[in-house]
Amino acid sequence: MIEPIKRVSTHHYPGGFTHLRLVAEGIAAKAQPGQWIVWGGRTLYIMRSDSQAGWIELLFTGETPHQEKIEGPGGEVPTVPEACSRSLLIGGVGALAQLIFFADSLRKRQSHTPLLLLQADQPLPFKPIPCRTMIPGMPAGVIATLPLLSDWGVALRIASADELAGCYHGRVDELAEQWLKAQPQPNEITCIRL
């Protein structure tokens, strides 16, 4: 679907990140976590959408396209089955928009507990804060999280080779493996890599 847009808000963050809210009612009505739009030849992942208000949000680096039409939503939608009570989502900073969209979607499920793990190998658009939610099986001292997700009550932890305070010192795959090994029934956790 190709749709005209109206820019509602633009914010710039550290690391060269831009956060945009666009009115695009048709795309907002169909958008699912993990999907993207094409805008000015760029493929940009959707960070959030509101089908009732008719807007989508994007979080990306690089120049903002100037075209007044976008195409989408596109891409396969990784799914977390409704019957699943726990999920593990893993991604790098380039997948942050997708992780946030999944977090926004999964937090609305009454009996579902997601954990998001983020590999921070490039500057972040936010200053990590200490978590408010403890996670059983998480290594001691791994407490850094994204402020927005903390406000939502969604657990996110960060891995970094740069020895950022409160982060796991190493690769996100190592952190995921340690955490999964500490879980009583790891085979019941749906894992998605973005």
SSE string, helices as H and strands as E: EEEHEEEEEHEEEHEEHE
Which shape, going by the Cα principal axes?
globular
Let me know the number of strands.
Answer: 14
What share of the residues does DSSP label as strand, in percent? 35-45%
Strand order of the largest sheet: 1-7-4-5-6-3-2
Give unreliable regions as ranges.
none
CATH class of the largest domain: Alpha Beta
How can the largest sheet be summarized? 7 strands, antiparallel
Helix count equals 4
Radius of gyration: 17 Å
Q: Any idea of the CATH topology of the largest domain?
A: Rossmann fold
Number of domains: 2
Span between N and C termini?
24 Å
Q: Look at the helices and sheets and give the structural class.
A: alpha/beta
Helicity level: 10-25%
* Overall mean confidence score, pLDDT: 94
CATH architecture classification name of the largest domain: 3-Layer(aba) Sandwich
Structural features, described:
With 194 residues, the protein is an alpha/beta fold. Helices cover 17% and strands 38% of the residues. It has helices at residues 25-30, 96-106, 147-152, 172-181; strands at residues 2-4, 6-13, 17-23, 36-39, 42-50, 55-61, 69-74, 86-92, 113-119, 129-130, 144-145, 155-160, 168-169, 190-193. The strands form three sheets. Strands 1-7-4-5-6-3-2 form a seven-stranded antiparallel beta sheet. A five-stranded parallel beta sheet has the order 13-12-9-8-14, sandwiched between helices. A two-stranded antiparallel ribbon has the order 10-11. The mean pLDDT is 94.
